[in-house]
């Protein structure tokens, strides 16, 4: 247990935002600990990658620790924006 009544070994934190219209509503969540996506717990970064890769839901519902309101992203729009964001910020 980590002192917060959790047994996770690591946390996934939305550390920085690469600005794009698709994520314009995410400012509030920067530096917050991601708990789950679409109800699936995120224990480490590889969990997040797997959830995003396998998701077929229309929306991605990102729940953060101790935050009542989730960040909701349109999955298809986020996937389309990913390529543009990678080019803009030189992440290819």
Automatic annotation (TrEMBL):
Protease Do-like PDZ domain mapped to chain residues: 9-89
GO MF terms, alphabetically ordered: serine-type endopeptidase activity
Keywords: Hydrolase, Protease, Serine protease
GO BP, one annotated term: proteolysis
Keyword Hydrolase: yes
Gene3D superfamilies per record: 3.20.190.20
Protein name: Protease Do-like PDZ domain-containing protein
